């Protein structure tokens, strides 16, 4: 694993915009950053990223099996009791999932370590699937990287295939939704809608604020069309607590991601997995805050709210001193403490976190995000990667 | 190879989001839907004269307002197999979507009946197993009331292309009809508003 400085394409903004990439610059700051790229060997990709990603996904499934009937765990994860049965049913019906992203610490030496699982509402998808793929083709064509390079990235074809298999019979009608006012979220949903259309689905977009409730208990879109299957880039923990939360169970709607993903997109998962498999090579020691075993953690540790997005409210601590923290609105539901990763890649004053993608629970792609601090936030930059020939 | 062999972006699909979806006003008004004059009579909510008048109004409005096609195929692409029939408009022969029913605003005396057309294939794609599409595509449709709750639903479209799903309840008179109405809107999204933050990661 190397960080390789590469001259950006002179016309890179036009090149990425021609793909429909609208958020390459966020609030005036660079987000898509092709001044460098990360180079991996095929062995690093397959042995250290792909295989552990698959293993962690299987561990997560085993965790769900036991957690669903374990009220203490569901309580610790701050899942509202009113929705336990709803979640259990979604798992027992075998409702399929579309995608997720494991965030991993990895520096090319030793096993990758799980930092968190963005199982419910991951973004950075379009740039992973399409923009860096296009960068690779052009980088090889202009001789910036060796011809014959490759990329861990079959996201696009996997997404199309997965949409076709989420529900039977297929094709079916799919609604997709996200909040108003976020170019990044809308861009992600637009891309997924494109994939769904290519899968032959009758795909329709509606903003989450437009969703209504029909007199027969079903949800409907802004044009009052009933919603039967809904991809929502909106977290379960919010949906459970909002006013339509109580209408979920009677809505006859199949959600993507399914409700059982609420158990995984929760930092409490980190403590639960460590409890199940203490010493697992891809896990860092982690406990719920207040657990006496927190005393056994390394002095350099990270405090993470159960629910938080994009690094918000994450605090890196050295003994009791705060080394780095990110402000944010999260944390009311509790925290986990996790050993700080010792294998976070850093070079030239940048820290890199790997995002390992799963589509339909199959590992199939990688993204690298960089930040000037050890906490990856929503201001992090996205850098392309390639596999050296 | 560890990457996709090709990436196609169905640009038209992306454009569709921006052009097709616009906010429409909330439907708070209750409507009644009848599939035919006989269904209207069986429901016994309107007099025979009112049923006949409503049907005549809907028939005339359909001829005037429904989309007109030069060929049966063009019409059926939008309205499904057997969704169209021929009509003579201004001396020329056209194919237009069939009159599948008519809708009246409940309690609005003197309101014009609105024609209902078969659901568009966007709402009910060929082979759809959605219950409202089953009903809509089947040839028809006596008012076979069941007992208790919604016994069936049917999808239609308006002459302006909007979808209407009517739920047919088994009422006291056996076969009274009401559209599924919107109960509320906006029950999701409040957390995002309160955080004014990203909802994704």
From TrEMBL, chain A:
GO molecular function: ATP binding; ligase activity; metal ion binding
Family matches, as SUPFAM superfamilies: Glutathione synthetase ATP-binding domain-like (SSF56059), PreATP-grasp domain (SSF52440)
Tagged with keyword Zinc: no
Superkingdom, natural source: Bacteria
Domain Glutathionylspermidine synthase pre-ATP-grasp-like: 12-387
Key words of the record: ATP-binding, Ligase, Magnesium, Metal-binding, Nucleotide-binding
Protein name: Glutathionylspermidine synthase
Species in which this protein is naturally found: Bosea thiooxidans
Automatic annotation (TrEMBL), chain B:
Biased composition (Low complexity): 190-201
InterPro entries: Biofilm_formation_YgiB (IPR009576)
Pfam families found in the cross-reference section: DUF1190
Region of interest: Disordered: 119-155, 177-201
Top-level division of the source organism's lineage: Bacteria
Name of the protein: Uncharacterized conserved protein YgiB, involved in bioifilm formation, UPF0441/DUF1190 family
Species name: Bosea thiooxidans
């Amino acid at each position: 694993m190397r960080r390789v400085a590469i001259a950006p394409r002179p016309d890179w903004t036009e090149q990425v915009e021609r793909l429909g990439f609208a958020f390459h610059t966020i609030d005036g700051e660079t987000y898509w950053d092709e001044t460098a790229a990360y180079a991996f060997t095929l062995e690093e990709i397959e042995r250290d990223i792909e295989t552990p990603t698959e293993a962690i996904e299987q561990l997560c499934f085993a965790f769900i099996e036991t957690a669903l009937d374990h009220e203490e765990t569901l309580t610790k994860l701050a899942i509202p009791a009113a929705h336990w049965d709803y979640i259990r049913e979604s798992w027992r019906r075998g409702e399929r999932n579309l995608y997720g992203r494991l965030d991993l610490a990895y520096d090319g030496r030793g096993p990758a370590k799980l930092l968190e699982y963005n199982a419910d509402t991951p973004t950075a998808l379009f740039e992973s699937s399409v923009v860096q793929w296009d960068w690779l083709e052009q980088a090889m064509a202009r001789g910036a990287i060796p011809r014959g390079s490759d990329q861990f990235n079959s996201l696009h074809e996997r997404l199309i295939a997965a949409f076709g298999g989420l529900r039977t019979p297929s094709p079916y009608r799919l609604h997709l939704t996200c909040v108003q006012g976020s170019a990044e979220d809308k861009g992600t949903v637009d891309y997924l809608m494109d994939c769904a259309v290519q899968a032959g689905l009758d795909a329709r977009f509606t903003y989450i604020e437009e969703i209504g409730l029909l007199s027969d208990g079903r949800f409907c879109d802004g044009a009052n069309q009933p919603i039967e299957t809904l991809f929502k880039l909106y977290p379960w923990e919010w949906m459970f607590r909002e006013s339509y939360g109580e209408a979920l169970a009677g809505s006859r709607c199949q959600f993507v991601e399914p409700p059982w993903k609420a158990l995984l997109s929760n930092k409490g998962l980190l403590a639960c997995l460590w409890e199940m498999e203490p010493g697992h090579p891809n896990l860092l020691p982690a406990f719920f805050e207040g657990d006496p075993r927190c005393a056994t953690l390394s002095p350099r540790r990270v405090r993470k709210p159960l629910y938080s997005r994009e690094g918000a409210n994450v605090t890196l601590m050295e003994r009791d001193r705060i080394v780095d923290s990110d402000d944010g609105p999260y944390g009311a539901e509790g925290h986990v403490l996790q050993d700080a990763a010792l294998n976070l890649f850093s070079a030239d004053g940048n820290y890199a976190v790997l995002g390992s993608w799963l589509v339909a629970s199959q590992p199939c792609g990688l993204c690298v995000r960089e930040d000037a601090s050890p906490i990856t936030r929503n201001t992090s930059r996205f850098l392309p990667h390639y596999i050296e020939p | 190879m560890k990457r996709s062999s090709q990436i196609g972006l169905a640009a038209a699909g992306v454009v569709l989001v921006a052009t097709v979806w616009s906010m429409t006003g909330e439907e708070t008004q209750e409507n009644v839907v009848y599939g035919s004059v006989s269904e209207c009579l069986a429901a016994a909510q309107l007099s025979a004269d009112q049923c006949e008048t409503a049907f005549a109004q809907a028939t005339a409005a359909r001829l005037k307002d429904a989309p007109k096609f030069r060929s049966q195929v063009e019409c059926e692409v939008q309205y499904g197999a057997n969704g169209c029939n021929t009509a003579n408009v201004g001396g020329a022969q056209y194919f237009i979507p069939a009159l599948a029913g008519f809708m009246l605003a409940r309690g609005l005396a003197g309101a014009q009946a609105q024609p209902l057309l078969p659901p568009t294939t966007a709402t009910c794609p060929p082979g759809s197993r959605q219950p409202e599409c089953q009903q809509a595509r089947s040839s028809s449709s006596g008012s076979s009331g069941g007992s208790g709750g919604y016994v069936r639903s049917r999808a239609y479209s308006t002459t302006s292309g909007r979808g209407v799903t009517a739920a047919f309840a088994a009422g006291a008179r056996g076969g009274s009809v009401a559209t599924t109405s919107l109960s509320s809107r906006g029950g999701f999204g409040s957390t995002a508003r309160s955080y004014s933050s990203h909802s994704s990661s």
